[in-house]
Structures are given as structure tokens and as C-alpha cells.
Write a structure and sequence with these properties.
single chain; alpha+beta
């Protein structure tokens, strides 16, 4: 991924509180593609593994919700795991 995305992820891992929604959306777009649903304050991303898992992120006055940042980080970790298995 690009340097900017890597820097955002690094900041998210250090402090998941106070992450800008636009930064979280940039990370999700980079790793998961376009959201299945966007508009209003929500964006829903389908994960690239079997089943129908999703990550839902929500704009809360310009910030991302902490639990959603943690969900995205967990999804990124799972992607890395799957990549290393192959």
C-alpha cells in the first residue's frame, strides 16, 4: 500500500482513539475496495474471505468510532494472515 496508508495504519495501531473518519475510509478503500454501501454517515465493506463478513464504519462528527477502528485493524491482521498462508 502507499506510504500514506501505512502511516495511517501505524497511527491507528498506536492510538485507535481520535482517528479521522476520512483516514479510516482511505485505509478501507485501499484494502477492501469500494464500499458496498456508502452515503449518509455509514460505509459498509465486504471482506475478501469466504462467507459474508462485513466491516461497517461510521462518521461520528468527522471521527471514526474506536470499536470500528479496532474491527478494521482486526480485518487487516486477518488479511495478512491469509496472505501468509497462501
Amino acid at each position: 500500500m502507499g506510504k500514506n496508508v501505512d502511516q495511517i495504519i501505524e497511527r491507528m495501531r498506536v492510538n485507535p482513539k481520535g482517528v479521522r473518519f476520512s483516514d479510516l475510509a482511505t485505509v478501507c478503500d485501499s484494502y477492501f475496495g469500494n464500499p458496498r454501501q456508502s452515503g449518509s454517515s455509514h460505509r459498509v465493506y465486504k471482506m475478501p474471505w469466504p462467507g459474508d463478513p462485513r466491516v461497517n464504519i461510521q462518521n461520528d462528527k468527522g471521527k471514526a468510532k474506536i470499536y470500528q477502528v479496532k474491527q478494521v485493524l482486526a480485518a487487516l491482521d486477518k488479511l495478512e494472515e491469509l496472505k501468509n498462508v497462501r
